[in-house]
Design a protein that fits this description.
This protein is α/β, with parallel strands linked by helices. It contains 8 helices and 5 strands. Helix 2 packs across helix 4, helix 4 runs parallel beside helix 5 and helix 6 crosses helix 7.
Length: about 190
Amino acid sequence: MSTRLVLLGPPGAGKGTQAARLAERLGIPAISTGDIFRANITGGTELGRKVQEYTSVGALVPDEVTNAMVRDRLAQADTAAGFLLDGYPRNVAQVGELDVILADAGLALDAAVELTADPQVVVERLLKRAEIEGRVDDTEPVIRHRLDVYAEQTAPIAAVYAGRGALVQVDGIGDVDDVTERLLAALSAHVR
């Protein structure tokens, strides 16, 4: 059985950790847009050069470039058994583009998994990570701003998937192993 998933959640909810764990347990690649960007830049691809034009000046990569990279990545052989997208789609327009990418390949998304997290717990978690990792730019106002941006731009994606009956919500707070097991149980109940 193939599994095609999107992983959503606010900064600090544990998406990166859980994406890697889920991908390993499900035998599918975890695909993050950041990894795609870096691979294309390192590989010197045309798309990589476009990404570098934006990132080198601190600008966001436009949707059309991101969409093209995701389309290319999802066409690779290792995604035949499924995939887990982490960091894409980031807005409702990208949801529509992902629908087109999958439809063109004769595929459909199995679920959008949202890791939920209490904002105060997330702020505390990210402040602790900033302290441990020496991230001086991760101050409480910056973290709260990132959470606001998430709520404004990315959280509406959850509403789209909920309207389609494809949203699976799981509490992302707690022991890492417990969260992984909650995710797997919720997916098992949803994806049949």
